[in-house]
Amino acid sequence: MSRTLRNISGRGRLTEDNVKDTLREVRMALLEADVALPVVREFINRVKEKAVGHEVNKSLTPGQEFVKIVRNELVAAMGEENQTLNLLRNRLRSY
Fold this sequence. Notes:
Elements: H1 2-7, H2 16-32, H3 37-51, H4 62-78
Helix pairs in contact: 2-3, 3-4
């Protein structure tokens, strides 16, 4: 993925052409992590919608800006609040 992020460096605006390969890498990583295909498609579409035409912050490289967009969408998809796991509640009792 770092190789594909280098392909979008040096540009002031993210375009569909310069994020296409990186989106493909993100898609493959999600599928390899067993994320459901409809979820992957929706996620990629949201990232693409936010990234394409996005002005790059002067303090970031285009690759960093793209990673920021992906991270923000991952947080939005998974939820911003931490949830506690109550593993003891459903534990089988052994007598």
